[in-house]
Structure formats: structure tokens, C-alpha cells
Amino acid sequence: MFTEGEIMNLSPSKRNKICLSIFSTLLLMAAGLSLVTYLSIKPIQKNFHDIVSDAHEMRITDRHGVPLNISYQSQWNNFDYVAIYDVPEFLKTAFIYSEDKDFYHHQGLNWPARISALWQNIRHREVVRGASTITEQVVRTITPRPRTLWSRWLEGFESSALEKSVTKQDIFEFYLNQIPYAANRRGVVQAARYYFNRDLNTLSPKEMLALVVLVRSPSGYDLYSSPDTIEKPLQRLASAMQKDGLITAGDYKSITTDKLRLEKFTLPTEARHFARFARMTTTQSDLLKTTLDSELQKQIQSIIDNRLKSLNPRHVANAGALVADYQTGEILAWVVGGATDVTTPANEIDTVTTPRQPGSALKPFLYASALDKGWTGATLINDSPLAEAVGHGLHRFKNYSNVNYGLITLREALGNSLNIPALLTIGHVGAGDYLSTLQKLGFKSLSLNSDVYDEGLALGNGEVTLLEMVTGYAALANRGEYRPLHIFQQNNNPAHPVRVYSEESTSIIGNILSDSKARRLEFGSGSVLNFPLQTAAKTGTSTDYRDAWTLGYNDRYVVGIWMGNLDRSPMNHVTGASGPALAMRSIFSLLNENRKTKPLYLSPHLVAHEVCIRPPKPDGTCPKRNEWFMANNQPSTVTPSNDNAAKIELVRPTDGLQIAYDPRIPIAHQNFRFEIKGVPDKNIIQWTLDEQVLGEGISPTMLWPVQKGKHILSVTISNGDKAIHTLQPVTFLVK
């Protein structure tokens, strides 16, 4: 280094060399700085225009445009966007006054504003105003960097470049829509809803000024944690604006005296489970208009939640409801019970898509298959005690009431939801064929082999979803045609209808399910399923009261409700009739308001006949009723033949049965009951055990003193002296 005296003593040529060296060094540094700056500057203009398309969350609305989902996890505010001309003038004025008074006069940088901000901060001994222009804040929002001098340097160039390619109005509109607030909110619309639950044009002057001040430090001025912190800077801003004639005396007085009233925003309709399902079923990323009716959704949510509260003492915690217009295939309501109640267990699980056992609610599909396989509503089915071997044991089937009614019609078997006739019916239909039919109806949850479900499928032992059940019932209502229900208004890929049942069989099923007389044996004459307008209704209850279902349809709508506990604990004797049925009545009452209703569809190809509903007495008389028949399957006389006569069958013991002594009971008092069914009256039954005749008589049962060991039982039925039937011997073991 040279001192000033030394430099002056140098010759002119040396001084020129030193100056040239310094100039070259500075030139190289400037060139290097220019190169690094050029390489570091972002393509701010392109990023500005691309931001709206940089969406991470789709917008889902109901059929009327009401939002069903709002996510604040996206990088940008893509949905709550407001045009500059729709922003209140006072709010725009306040932002310009507070953040960048010379916004409409500078070219992106405002050095006088930076110096003025620095002076104000020193004078007030706190940061009361930033030094960045609105354009610089927009640049910082688009390309966030660490807060350094280098960052400010780059932002200056990017701001100038942005001002050259975008209008002031576009920059200001972007700023108002993307400026960050607390809780991942962006833009003044989201902030107004987050803090005040109101739209911009309903805000008071003080609330608007709060939005202006909050952008300086969203967390520092957090209204929810420290609502009074913002008062001082807010009133300073109001005072300055009043001095400059931007606030009236009246507004200033209300700003300084009124308190900010906070209210968090909530969606107008609770449908987050539906919105989640919608996101999973589409690859679109823009606005999705669904078929949901938000007003109906709210009303049904209230009905289900109130029913859950009334059933809570009976240990019912969860529920789901689904409503669809089966004529259009549109889903109108998708309700998860207790979705808005934080005390509801597992309320994030979607009960509409969770597989559960349907119990008897599956039976209409079985009987529709039986009708298409030749049975009629007048077919007599033997509702007698039934037991079958399960492994090495014996399972006795029973109806819900533990009552057996003997020979009854198919209409009564379905109407009263009797279990034993259903088991006999699946024997006629075939478990494999029945499973295939259910899968054609969209029951994808029933994915196992028919051997796994076996006859238990008649009683609903396979788990299905509420969505699948409602879709299946919609097929019954749609004259036997399966059409998947849909949730989007623009259904670009409508599935072609698939005929699963004949329209005649489904007409009969609907007629039976809406017949109050058909269900009177088990449900009584005043059942909750007796609707004022013709409605096909069916209930279902799974083993140990773990699931309660009610499903139904009228001339236009199909409704399904499930109730139970998602932890699979049993309810306290809640059935489909005592649990969800009452809610379904309320829902149908709601759906039928202000519209012209019609009866259920009845195929014109059906023919009515008066038929016997019990076997004729010896004198030929019998109770009768009118029944509907397919044209190709009419009774030859008014008295139908018994198409389901009981077969002679040994009920107890079954082949391979294992019996154990009960150590609590004396051996001499332990007996086992042999039992046979289907033996015509007055026929003689001979019981033979280990080739020794035990006895004979007309009784279908015989008590046998239990003896340890392996035994072989054979039974012969005779009419007088002539043997007419010998059953296959069975082997059983007493341990």
C-alpha cells in the first residue's frame, strides 16, 4: 500500500500504472458481480405467470358450487382468489399507504421509502414499517431467500424486471391474494375468514386495518394468542391515515374504541370423508363439481347425529348414511355420524366405505335370484328347526324371535326376514351362483371363494360396505339393472347398465319389501318400516348386535344407514329396526318434501292370482291372498303346489359329531336327543344304534342315555309294515 505522499512522489507513469491496476481490479470485480448476479437472478416473470397452475390441492364443491374441502397445505392460494376490482377500496388504500405509498410511481425500487422506513423505525424504537416495496415483497414471495444483503441486491433486479413485464394492477392483485398470514393462510380472503369468518366486503375499517398490519409479522401480532398486541401499531396507522384525510373522524373513533371480534372459519358443510373419497377416485387437479347436495348433507348429518346421541346409552358410537337418486345415479349425501364431534371415537374413518357384516339386509338379493330361478312369491318354504354340522360340532339355526312358523310363503319369509327359509333358499339358488350375482351388483368386498362363505352368505356373513349395499339396492329399484353410482357432475365415463335381475323379479321384491302385511309375523302391524308413501324397506342385524342396517327405496331415492361401533364391540340389543330405521323415516320424509311422489314401479308383465298361502286342509280350504306372478310362471290352479316340501333328514347327530360328557352333571342324568325332520305324519320311525334297535314310534325325537365310545346310528321310516325310507348311517363319538 502507498501513502498519499508516496503516490505523489511517484513518477506520472507509475501513478498511471497503479490507477490502471486499481481500475482493472474494480472492473473485474464488477464483471464478476454482474456474472454472479445474472446467474443468480430467477426467471421472475415466468414464475409469476405459472404460480396459479402450480396447484397441489384440488377444489371440491357440491352441485351448487359450495366448497366441500379447503386445504392450506398448498404453496399458493389457488382457490380463494379475488380480483383487484372486487377488493374494497379502503383495504387497497390502507395497504398502499402502509406498505408502499409510491407503488404507482416507482419502477420496483424506492430508495426514498427505504430511508423513510429506517427513520421511522429508529424514531419509534421498533419496526413499524418495512423497507421493501410491494413489488419486492411479491418477488420475495415467489423466490424466498435468506434475509441477507445479497438477497436484497437480487430482489432489486428481479423487481425491476417484473415491473417491465407485468402491470401494476397485476402485481398488486397477486400481492393481495398471495401475501402470507398465520396458519398457512395466504391472501386477504383467507385471512378475513380465518380471523373473522367473513368476506372482505363485510369487514369493518378496523378489521381491514388489522389485515394490513398483520402482514408485517403474522406470528408476532397473532390475534388468537395475543389479541391486544396489534392495537398499538393499528392505531398508529389509523392516526396517520386520518391526518392525511384517508379516514373519517367517525371511522377513526370506532377503530380506537371497538374491539376486534374473532371467529374462526368453518366449512358450510361437513363432508371431509366424501371429499377424501373424491380425491382418491380422480386424477384431475382442478375444480371438481360433485353431485353432493350440501343442504341435504347438513340436514341428514343432523338426523344421524341426533339418532346417535339418543342411542349412546345403548353403546352405539358410529354410523354412516348414504343417499342417492337412483334414476340419475347421483350420490346426494354421504354422512359419517359424529364427524363434527371430537368425542366420537374413530370419526376420521369413513363408515360409508368400511366393510361390515350386513346380516339380513342382504336377503332381498337372494330372493330375487330365487324368483328368477323359478320360485314365486307364493312358493312355500319350510320354516322348521334346522341344525347343521360345523366341523365336529352342531350348529342350530334360529330366527331372530326364536319362533318357527312352519310352511310359509316366500313373501312372508322375506318380509319377516326369517333365517331358516333363507338357508333353504340359498340351497335352491346355489352359493356359488348367488356370490356371482352379488359381484355383478358391485360387491367387490366379497372377494373370497364361495366355499368360504358357503350357506352363511344367505345370512350376510361376508363383509360389505354401505356404498356397495346402496348401489345394490339401487339396482333393485332400477328394475334389475346395475349402474354404478357416481359422485361427479361431469360423469365422463358412464358405465353401461348391466342387467342382473329381470324387471319382474325386482318388481315383486319391491312389492314385498313395501308390504306391511308381509312382515307382521316378526315386526307386528305397527312397524317403523310402514311408511306413509310406498317405500321398500329392509333391516339387517349381525351376530351379537355388532351391526345394525336399514336400507330402502321409493320411486326416486335410495337410502342406506349403518350403525355400530368401529372397534367392533357389540351394541346393547340394537337392531336395524330399533336403531337406524327411525332415522331412515326422517330422511325419506325430507326427500319427499315439495315433490310429486309415485308408487314403486310394477312390471306390466306381472299377473295377479289369488292363491293359498298355507297347505290346503283335508276339506280343500286354505287362507288366501293375491300374489303377483311372472307371465311364464303362473300357477295352474289357485292352490299352488308346495315347491319346497320338507325332505327327510337326520338333524341330530350329524356324521362325525363329537360329544363330551358334562362333568357337572351325573352320568345317569345325561341324555342326547336324536332328531329327524321331514317325516310324513303317522309314519313309523325306527332308531338303531350299533346294530341294536333302540325303539320305534311316530315321534321325530328320541332321548338316548349317553355312553362313551364310537357309535353308528341308522334310521328307517316305514308306513305300516313297509319300509319306505332308510337314512344313510352316521358315525359319532362320545368322549
How would you describe the overall organization of this protein?
It is a single chain. This protein is α+β, with helices and mostly antiparallel strands and 735 residues long. Among the domains are: 4-40; 44-55 and 71-257, Biosynthetic peptidoglycan transglycosylase-like (Penicillin binding protein transpeptidase fold); 649-734, Immunoglobulin-like, CATH 2.60.40. 34% of the residues lie in helices and 18% in strands. The chain has 23 helices and 24 strands. Strands 17, 19, 20, 22, 23 and 24 form a six-stranded mixed beta sheet that branches. A five-stranded antiparallel beta sheet has the order 4-3-13-12-11, with helices on both faces. A hairpin with a 2-residue loop joins strand 6 (386-390) and strand 7.
Descriptors:
Penicillin binding protein transpeptidase fold; 735 residues; Immunoglobulin-like; alpha+beta; 23 helices; single chain; six-stranded mixed beta sheet
Q: Which residue ranges are poorly predicted, with pLDDT under 50 across at least 5 consecutive positions? A: 637-644
**Morphology call:** elongated
- End-to-end distance, in Å? 113 Å
- What is the CATH class of the domain at 44-55 and 71-257? Mainly Alpha
Helix tally equals 23
CATH T-level fold name of the domain at 44-55 and 71-257: Penicillin binding protein transpeptidase fold
- The total strand number stands at 24
Write the layout of secondary structure elements.
Elements: H1 4-9, H2 12-40, H3 44-50, E1 59-61, H4 89-99, H5 111-124, H6 134-142, H7 149-165, H8 168-178, H9 187-196, H10 205-214, H11 231-243, H12 249-257, H13 272-280, E2 287-289, H14 294-311, E3 318-325, E4 330-336, H15 363-372, E5 380-383, E6 386-390, E7 393-397, E8 406-409, H16 410-415, H17 419-429, H18 431-440, H19 450-453, H20 466-477, E9 481-482, E10 498-499, H21 503-513, H22 520-523, E11 536-541, E12 547-553, E13 557-564, H23 580-591, E14 606-612, E15 624-630, E16 649-652, E17 658-659, E18 671-677, E19 684-689, E20 692-697, E21 701-705, E22 709-719, E23 722-726, E24 730-734
Parallel strand pairs: 1-2, 17-24
Antiparallel strand pairs: 3-4, 3-13, 5-8, 6-7, 9-10, 11-12, 12-13, 14-15, 16-18, 18-21, 19-20, 19-22, 22-23, 22-24
